[in-house]
């Protein structure tokens, strides 16, 4: 069974940093592009960042560009999101998801999410 | 940037009803439109891909239609487990993606 498990969420002050992890299992992790999506309280889903299967291509939404860095360690089958200069508006549940692997792109499956709270 | 606008933002329906959820794109996105179901505290689930493709294991009461800028998710014969929030998502501008704002389906 394909599974994704996020971790690393927590409480942080504005301006602080946090690193999220997403461990994959049940599939060939190194063969798939991976993506982070977040949901702020009471809001909808928002695409945050994506990374190619080899880790050499990365993409970011304008809202996080320059502050967040996506990376992966295929030997550990783990996706990361380094979040710096955090703001209150970054408060959200962060989900990781994988490219289904077929064309056109769609996301399946998704992890259960990890909560990030940014507050003074 | 491609914007997706869903309507309605919320709707109430009864078990057994047929419901339609609309998603309009700010420009033509051809067939690059997916639908997801999300319940509170759970992982979102892929329902429909490429406008009308039914994802593995998704019940046939779910269907999608449309092209260009106007798309519809239809649920025929609502079941209790279908009450959730539904999102459309475009992959036309991959790897930059956009979701609609969501439509919450509530029990009447």
Q: Can you offer a commentary on this structure?
A:
The complex is a heterodimer of chains A (120) and B (108). Chain A is mostly beta strands and 120 residues long. Chain A contains no helices and eleven strands. In chain A, a hairpin with a 4-residue loop joins β7 and β8. Chain A starts with a strand and ends with a strand. Chain B is 0% helix and 51% strand. Chain B contains no helices and eleven strands. Chain B has strands spanning 4-7, 10-13, 18-25, 33-38, 45-49, 53-54, 62-67, 70-76, 85-90, 98-99, 103-107. In chain B, the strands form two sheets. In chain B, strands 2, 4, 5, 6, 9, 10 and 11 form a seven-stranded mixed sheet that branches. In chain B, strands 1-3-8-7 form a four-stranded antiparallel sheet, with no helix packed on it. Chain B starts with a strand and ends with a strand.
Q: Residue share in helices of chain B?
A: under 10%
Count of extended strands of chain B: 11
Mean pLDDT of chain B: 96
Indicate the proportion of strand residues of chain A.
Answer: over 45%
SSE blueprint:
The complex is a heterodimer of chains A (120) and B (108).
Chain A: E1 3-7, E2 10-12, E3 18-25, E4 34-39, E5 45-51, E6 58-60, E7 68-73, E8 78-83, E9 92-99, E10 107-110, E11 114-118
Parallel strand pairs in A: 2-11
Antiparallel strand pairs in A: 1-3, 3-8, 4-5, 4-9, 5-6, 7-8, 9-10, 9-11
Chain B: E1 4-7, E2 10-13, E3 18-25, E4 33-38, E5 45-49, E6 53-54, E7 62-67, E8 70-76, E9 85-90, E10 98-99, E11 103-107
Parallel strand pairs in B: 2-11
Antiparallel strand pairs in B: 1-3, 3-8, 4-5, 4-9, 5-6, 7-8, 9-10, 9-11
Structure, briefly:
The complex is a heterodimer of chains A (120) and B (108). Chain A is mainly beta and 120 residues long.
Keywords:
heterodimer; A: 120 residues; mainly beta; seven-stranded mixed β-sheet; four-stranded antiparallel β-sheet; 0% helix; B: 108 residues; globular
């Amino acid at each position: 069974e394909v599974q994704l498990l996020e971790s690393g969420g927590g409480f942080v002050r504005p301006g602080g940093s946090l690193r999220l992890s997403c461990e994959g299992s049940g599939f060939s992790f190194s063969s798939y592009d991976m993506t982070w999506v977040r949901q702020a309280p009471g809001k909808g889903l928002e695409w945050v960042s994506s990374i190619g299967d080899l880790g050499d291509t990365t993409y970011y939404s304008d809202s996080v560009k320059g502050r967040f860095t996506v990376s992966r360690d295929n030997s550990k089958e783990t996706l990361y999101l380094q979040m710096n200069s955090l703001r209150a508006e970054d408060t959200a549940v962060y989900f990781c998801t994988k490219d289904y692997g077929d064309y056109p792109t769609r996301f399946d499956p998704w992890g259960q999410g990890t909560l990030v709270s940014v507050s003074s | 940037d491609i914007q997706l606008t869903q309507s309605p933002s919320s709707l109430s329906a009864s078990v057994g009803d047929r419901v339609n959820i609309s998603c309009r794109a700010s420009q033509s996105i051809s067939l690059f439109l997916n639908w997801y179901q999300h319940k509170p505290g759970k992982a979102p689930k892929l329902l429909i891909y490429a406008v009308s493709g039914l994802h593995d294991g998704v019940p046939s009461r779910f269907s999608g239609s449309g092209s260009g800028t106007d798309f519809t998710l239809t649920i025929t014969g609502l079941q209790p487990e279908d009450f959730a929030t539904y999102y459309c998502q475009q992959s036309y501008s991959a790897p930059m993606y956009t979701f609609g704002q969501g439509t919450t389906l509530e029990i009447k």
